[in-house]
UniProtKB/TrEMBL annotation:
Alphabetical list of InterPro entries matching this protein: AAA+_ATPase, AAA_lid_NorR, GAF-like_dom_sf, Homeodomain-like_sf, HTH_Fis, P-loop_NTPase, PAS, PAS-assoc_C
CDD domains in alphabetical order: AAA, PAS
Positions of the PAS domain: 180-251
Residue intervals of the PAC domain: 254-305
Protein's recorded name: Sigma54 specific transcriptional regulator with PAS/PAC sensor, Fis family
Coiled-coil regions, chain positions: 296-334
Matches recorded under PROSITE patterns: PAC (PS50113), PAS (PS50112), SIGMA54_INTERACT_1 (PS00675), SIGMA54_INTERACT_3 (PS00688), SIGMA54_INTERACT_4 (PS50045)
Domain of life: Bacteria
Record carries keyword Nucleotide-binding: yes
NCBIfam families: sensory_box
């Protein structure tokens, strides 16, 4: 168990280093990561090999070797040396696990000879995909002794390889973007560019006619740095002098934006870029270009003026202001997730990062924050998105039924099991299983869930037949699972398997700028359902909605808008009076205290009724089981149902 935990820690550390790696340092980070895995697993060779779909020859891009292990060629004809392995790994996309040469089938005789020639006694080859194509291979060889390859080594190796491939893809994308930008920069500069050369020792300045024109001089004028400073705005002298001095000590490109005073007294904006020319350790010349960007600056100033005018008009608008739902979500591929705040953009960045990896994701956040929508988006953007995502609300099922729901049952497995039933894991084979409120799962069921995540297999209740599945897990909880582990209410080993890629979904009070967009979306949704056309929300009402703390988050906001549409007789929303008392706005109250007060206020309004029509659970738009759980945690008394 310690070895597994340490391997997970090593993978986590490598993952963190890959996130921080720049394009320039990525090769070194990958090589050091392979060195670490080689040392930890005590093997002879480990390599990351690039696969060319048009050729059987693969390239050894990165490799780490034990001291006594011979190096292999940088290019290997895998189909010729290992034909059986080539068909298994490249052709069928399956992992090759060889604990000993005896594991190879009779048709792999050529592979056995090649392994013997290389001195391999055990080997593991993991295919790494981009889309449906095998893009890279992660290979591990043992030479001294035969060894097993536990499933956890395979899982962590695949995760490590996916991290490598993702980082390499990111670098290639950044490089392509940078090349495109450089080409555009050159094309833009070539139109009205002025060239110049400054002697850093003497201060003499050579310039092309176009550069002299930019500076306001005749083509025949002899220039020096001092003469140039005479026409530059006095406030920019210090900036120019500092850049010239900096050029004496760096080989990096320098860029400065400044103002030149024209003969008629007007100011023109210039941008100069330059790089010092070094010889024998001395920077003698500064070579550069200058572009007149006055038109661009004037457009920027005009734009800023227009923006200020628009902001001023927004303030002066009559109290009723029409809020139009933003279409940014569809344009950016956010799907069902609504919100353009910095917090939601960060979440979408994480979603895009993890969606295609197939890794387990843990969503944490308060009740009603939209964790289910985040899970749906991850699934939709993944390679499993063509299949339906299977959902299980662990809090909505009585403890004894959770296991039956997850793993299925045979007829007669227990009293009342009158028919055979497939479990959610079977239904989710090849797709994604979303386990909501996973903290409500019993410790016994957690142990069985851990086995499925680790081994991909389970048995139905009442059956001894093992069922294998390929399921991606997305789990969600409104509790802090790390604290639940400390309290002994959640298994630590399961937490570590779920916490590979955690995402925190923020409460609505942390992203109030998203509220207008959510309001208009709910108005459209309920308006279509009720046959009402609401065009406006009064400015004061939108301000009230934006400033409210929303203890129930998006779910509470949705409830308020639905109620408001019911009572609205015209095309301007009539806002339901928010029933939360002022104590919800106590800045010194803890989050749990705010939630406790809110639940108590709703219970008071319903006369203590929790279930059924008009009950507290319906008003809060949460499952009664979830409400009971929250009340127990917050110390709110209730009668057992």
């Amino acid at each position: 168990m310690d070895d597994i935990f340490n391997l997970q820690k090593l993978t986590s550390a490598i993952s963190a280093s890959m996130v921080m790696a720049s394009s320039e340092s990525l090769d070194g980070v990958i090589n050091r990561a392979l060195d670490s895995m080689l040392s930890f697993l005590e093997i002879a060779r480990i390599g990351l090999l690039a696969v060319d779909e048009s050729s059987p020859v693969i390239n050894v891009d990165y490799a780490s070797y034990a001291k006594d292990a011979p190096h292999v060629s940088k290019q290997i004809n895998l189909a010729a040396l290992f034909p059986w392995t080539y068909d298994l790994v490249i052709g069928r996309g399956q992992t090759m696990v060889m604990a000993s040469l005896d594991d190879l089938p009779s048709e792999a005789e050529e592979d056995r000879r090649s392994h013997t020639m290389l001195g391999n006694k055990s080997a593991l080859i993991i295919p790494l995909f981009i889309g449906s194509r095998v893009h890279h291979l992660l290979t591990l060889d043992a030479r001294k002794t035969e060894r097993d390859w536990p499933e956890e080594v395979v899982v962590q190796g695949r995760l490590l390889g996916e991290i490598f491939v993702s980082a390499l893809q990111r670098r290639e994308a950044e490089s392509s973007l940078r090349r495109t930008k450089e080409r555009l920069d050159i094309a833009a500069l070539s139109a009205e560019i002025g060239l110049w050369e400054l002697n850093l020792d003497t201060g003499s300045l050579w310039a092309t006619p176009k550069a002299k024109e930019h500076f306001g001089f005749d083509p025949d004028t002899e220039l020096t740095l001092s003469r140039l400073l005479d026409v530059i705005h006095p406030e920019d002298h210090g900036l120019i002098s500092a850049k010239v001095e900096e050029s004496r000590h760096t080989r990096e490109e320098l860029m400065v934006e400044y103002r030149v005073r024209a003969g008629d007294g007007s100011l023109r904006w210039m941008i100069s870029r330059g790089r010092s020319l070094w010889e024998n350790g001395h920077a003698g010349l500064l070579l550069g270009v200058t572009v007149d960007v006055t038109a661009r600056k004037e457009m920027e100033l005009q734009l800023q003026t227009h923006i200020r005018e628009i902001e001023s008009l927004k303030v002066k608008l009559e109290r009723e202001n029409q809020y139009l739902r933003l279409e940014v979500a569809a344009a950016e591929g956010q799907g069902e997730i609504l919100g353009s705040s910095e917090a939601m953009r960060a979440i979408m960045s994480q979603v895009r990062m993890v969606a295609q990896t197939g890794s387990t994701v843990l969503l944490q956040g308060e009740t009603g924050t939209g964790k289910n929508l985040v899970a749906s988006t991850i699934h939709r953007l993944s390679g499993r998105g063509k299949k339906a995502m299977i959902r299980v609300n662990c809090a909505a099922l009585p403890g004894p039924l959770v296991e039956s729901e997850l793993f299925g049952r045979e007829k007669g497995a227990y009293t009342g099991a009158l028919s055979r039933q497939a479990g959610r894991f079977e239904l989710a084979d090849g797709s994604t299983l979303f386990l909501d409120e996973i903290a409500e799962m019993s410790l016994e069921t957690q142990a069985k869930l851990l086995r499925v995540i680790q081994d991909g297999e389970f048995e139905r209740l009442g059956s001894s037949k093992t069922i294998k599945v390929n399921v991606r897990i997305i789990a969600a909880s409104n509790r802090d699972l790390a604290k639940e582990v400390e309290a002994g209410r959640f298994r630590g080993d399961l937490f570590y398997r779920l916490n590979i890629f955690p995402i925190r979904v923020p409460p609505l009070r942390e992203r109030p700028e998203d509220i207008p967009q959510l309001v208009m979306e709910f108005i459209r949704e309920f308006g279509d359902r009720m046959g009402k056309r609401i065009l406006r929300v009064a400015h004061k009402d939108m301000q009230l909605l934006t400033n409210y703390s929303w203890p129930g988050n998006i779910r509470e906001l949705r409830n308020v808008i639905e109620h408001s549409l019911i009572i609205t007789p015209c095309d301007t929303l009539v806002l339901q009076r928010l029933t939360a008392s002022p104590e919800f706005h106590d800045a010194d109250a803890s989050l749990e205290e705010v939630e406790r007060r809110h639940i108590q206020a709703v219970l008071k309004a319903t006369g203590g009724r929790i279930k059924g029509f008009g009950g507290a659970a319906e008003r809060l738009r949460i499952n009664p089981s979830t409400l009971y759980s929250r009340m127990r945690k917050l110390g709110i008394g209730f009668k057992q149902p």
